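Researcher: Please predict.
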Amino acid sequence: MAKPTRLTQEMIEEYTARGYWDQRGITDILKQNVEKFPDKEALVDSERRLTWTELDRVTDAVAMGLLKRGMKRDQAIVAQLPITGVSLILLLASHKAGIVCCLAPLTFRFNEMKHIVKTIGATTVLTPVELRNTNYFSIAKEIAGDLPQLKRLFVLSDEPPSEAVSFRELMEEPFDEQEAQRLLKEHAFGPFEVSSVVLSSGTTGMPKCIEQTGASSRVGGWGIVERAKLTSDDIVGIIAPLSGGPGLQNFWAAFQAGAKVCLLERFSPDGVLEFIERESVTYLPAIPTQLIKILKQCDLSQCALSSLRAVRTGAAAFDAAMARETEEKMKCDVLIAGGSQETYSFAQSGLDDPPEKRITTLGKVFPGNEVKIVDDEGREVPTGEVGQMCVRGASTSSGYFGDKEATLAAWGALGMEGWYKTGDLAKFDHEGYLSIAGRKKDMIIRGGQNIYPAEIENILLSHPKVSQAVIIAIPDQVLGERACACIVPMPGETFTSEEMISFLTKKGLAVFKLPERLELMEQFPQLVDGQKVDKISLTKKIVKKVESES
C-alpha cells in the first residue's frame, strides 16, 4: 500500500461516517460510468473520441502493458505531456494497475524532472520525443543515466528511439480480458492509498511532490459538481494544463458526473472560442490569465457561444468587473473558486448564489472541508476581519510524498489536528461567504498601512491598455515599503504613470494605495509551471534597479 504521510485511521473513520468518503475507488467510478453510459462519449482530444466503454478498454490495455513491462504495484510513473487524452488515459490506467501517477508541466526541464523522479522513486517516464523546440526524450534519457531507478522510457511517437517504447503500443496491444479482470482487481488502488502526486509551482525552489488519494480527489471534484450543477449532459472543456489544479480538479468533477471531457492541446484566445463552438462546450474551467486574454484580444460579438452556460476561474487577478464583463460578452455565468495543490478545491461560488456573491467571493466552503481565519498568533479573528487562511478537510492532500518533516511544517500536525496554512489573507462575511484579500507574503506595509496588491492589480487589469499587472513592494527608508506597479501593456500600446494614477483615483482607490512607481515590461518572468508570474524574481529585478538609481 502507498501509505499516505498524514492520513490516519481516525480521519478515514471520521470522513466516512460523515458521508464525505466511502469505499469506492476511482476504478469503481469508471466502471459505474461504463454501466450507465456505455456508448456515450467520455474523452475527446485532437486524435481520439472515446466512449466510456472504449475508455475503460484502453485503460485496461495500458494498465496491463505497464505491469507486463515490469512495473510493480506502488511504483511511480512521471508523465510530461501537452493537454492530451493520453494524460488521462495514463492516470486512470495507473489507478487500475496500482501505480502512482505524476503529471508534470511541460515547462519543467532537467533539474525539476530529476528532482521529481528521485523524490517519488519513479521507475518510468513518459514524454514526447520533441515538442516546441525542446527534446524531452533527451532530458529523460539523461536523468536515467544519473538515476538507475529510472528503468523505462515511454514516448509519444510511432517511431520511438531505440531506448524507448511507443506509448501507442501499450494502448493498442491486445490483452487477455479474463486475466486483466483478475489482475487489475488485485492491483487497483483503494480510496485511501496514495494514487497520484501533484506538483507545486516551485516558488521556493524545487517543486514539492504532493500526495493525493482517490478519496481526496473525489471530494474536491464533487464540490465542483454540486456548485456548477454538472450532469452527464455537460461537455467540459479543459484548456488548462492537467498538471495543475484547474485542469485536473475539473477532470475529477466531470469524471464523477459522467460528463464528456474535451481537451484543447494548446491555448490561444481564438482557439478557445473555436473549441467551444466546435465541441459545444457547456462548462469551461480556465486560469484567470486565459480569460483576460480572451476578453482583451477577441471580438466576442462575432462568436457563437450559445452552448456555454458557466465559466469557472480562480480568484487571482480576476475581479468582479472582469467577471461581469465575461458574463456580458460570453453570455454565461462566472463561478469563482479557491484551492491549491495541497488543498485541492475547498471552496467555490455556485450557480445558486446571489449574483454579486457569486462573482465577488469564493462562495462557501465545500462540505467536508473547514476554513479558519487567524491572526499572527493563531487566534481566530472576528467575522469580517482579514487574517491568514488555514484549511483542513476531506479534499486536502495527505502530505508531501515521503517527507514527514515538510508535512509537519506545512500542516502543523499529522492527522485530524493538522491545518494547512495557505499563505492567503482572507475573510468571511456574516453569511459565510469567503473572500481572498491577497497573499500574506505579498502584502505591502506602507507607513503602517496595509496594501493588498491583488486589489490594485484587479483594477489595473480592467484598463483597456493593460494586458498584465503585478504590484510589488520596493523598500523605502522612511515608509518602510512603497508600491510599484509592473505593467505589460497591450500590443502597440503605451501606459504612463499619470494615466495609471488618474484611472485608479477615478476607481476610488485610497491615496496611500496608489503605486508610486511604474515599470513597463514586455513580459513577466514565469514560474516553472508556466501559469503564474514569478513575483520573487520580478521583485528582485526591480529592487536591484531601484537600488542602482539611488
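Model: The chain has 18 helices and 25 strands.
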